[in-house]
Design brief:
By secondary structure, this protein is an alpha/beta fold. The protein has a domain of 150 residues: Rossmann fold (3-Layer(aba) Sandwich), CATH 3.40.50. It is built from 7 helices and 10 strands. The strands form 2 sheets. A 6-stranded mixed β-sheet has the order 6-7-8-3-9-10, with helices on both faces. Strands 2-1-4-5 form a 4-stranded antiparallel β-sheet, covered by helices on one side. Strand 7, helix 6 and strand 8 form a beta-alpha-beta unit. The longest helix has 16 residues. It is globular.
């Protein structure tokens, strides 16, 4: 069974704007999929529908066997435990250490203190920052801050890690490190969705590439390249 299933999904906005039209997309457990396309092609809308930030105008969206098409607001937090999200802008809390930033994701969901004490060091070790647990975000490089964000996104052991332009603010060296980390997480069995403009990253990955144009999927290649 597919882990993510979009069936004839459409999204319309006021003023006759069509953001997505008849999108059919199935993603299997453990895949690493790049979602590509120029600005305004529907990538951001796809992300918003997947994390239930917005509902589709038509069609069905199923995540891990759960039809989220008409998900209620009180069920959204449960969905987002299954989908860890990494954004381009880090959204770290500046007055908390990186360990406290990661712990906060667990605290707000009511995780017990003993679990938090155990899990946070494990997550920081996965991203290679266990030796900087007491540092504040301002004391870290951009690449290190993004690694903290990835650790935080993994706090609930999600089935899916959705990385929306995670290297957009990083130089080429840090970009390589972040992509290597995403590949490592994928090897653990987590499904990765990488939304990106970065042609070099996509072409180096040699993984599945789904291309959007004008709200529609125009290409879906198992070992694809970013070709416009």
């Amino acid at each position: 069974m597919s882990l993510i299933d979009f069936r004839n999904v459409c999204k319309y906005y006021d003023g006759g704007v069509t953001a997505l039209k008849d999108v059919n997309l199935s993603i299997e457990p453990g895949e690493f999929v790049s979602i590509v396309g120029q600005s305004g092609t529907g990538k951001t809308t796809l992300v918003k529908l997947l994390i239930a930030e917005e509902p589709p105008s038509a069609g069905r969206i199923v995540v891990a066997g759960w039809d989220i098409t008409g998900i209620s607001p009180r069920e959204v937090p449960l969905l987002r435990k299954q989908i860890g999200v990494v954004f381009q802008d880090f959204k770290l809390l500046p007055r908390k250490t990186i360990a406290e930033n990661v712990a906060f994701a667990l605290e707000v969901s009511g995780a017990p203190g003993a679990q938090i004490k155990t899990v946070v060091p494990q997550l920081l070790k996965i991203v290679g920052l266990d030796h900087k647990a007491d540092r504040f975000p301002r004391e870290l490089s951009g690449g290190e801050q993004q690694r903290v964000v990835i650790a935080r996104a993994l706090a609930h052991r999600p089935k899916i890690l959705l990385a929306d332009e995670p290297t957009g603010n990083l130089d080429s060296f840090n970009t390589v490190e972040i992509i290597a980390l995403l590949k490592k997480i994928n090897e653990f069995g987590t499904t990765i969705l990488l939304v990106t403009h970065n042609r070099d990253v996509v072409n180096e990955l040699k993984r599945r590439v789904v291309m959007l144009d004008r709200g529609q999927i125009v290409s879906d290649q198992k070992r694809g390249r970013y070709v416009l």
